[in-house]
Amino acid sequence: MSKKLYHILITIAFGIISIPTVLNIIFQERILNNFVDKAFLKLILIIFICMIEVSYIKRKFPKTIGYILWFVLLIGMLFKIQHWPFATELVMIAGLLLFINLVLQAINDKNKGFLHYLLLLFVLQRLLIILTPTNEILWWIDVIICFVITIFGLLKVLNLKSFKR
Questions:
Q1: CA 32 to chain centre
Q2: pLDDT digits (tens, 9 = 90+) for 36-63
Q3: Tens digit of pLDDT for each residue in 112-141?
Q4: What is the dihedral of CA 8, 14, 20, 25, to 10 degrees?
Q5: Separation of alpha carbons 84 and 150, rounded Å
């Protein structure tokens, strides 16, 4: 998948998530609230972001470990959807190890843009929400991150000169 298509898909998905939430906050009423199942879409986004980011790793050994951890994360997400036991533990262990692998590769790879780091921050934040689902501060951080990713994704897709990385 090309990076341009990746940025377009990410921007559309985060727009679908964040625009109804921001409208609800601004107008203080439920606008487009049942428009999409946001929790399920965010689970799919974590899987999609991790898969694409792992495919961008150039070295063979970290890429193989990344794909194995991505598969374990996918299994954990399926366990979570089915409400099977040990789903949260499986998602947290695989997700955090995959996050560490992706961060180490992003540090080694110098041409990562700001949007990639925002997406990694989103993955970490979603893992923290899975661990502590009732934390209201994480909800606000989630809204802010989703909206910022939507804005930066639009700027990246529109090829504005200050975001051409």
A1: 22
A2: 566 777 778 888 888 888 888 888 888 8
A3: 778 888 888 888 888 888 778 777 888 888
A4: -130
A5: 33
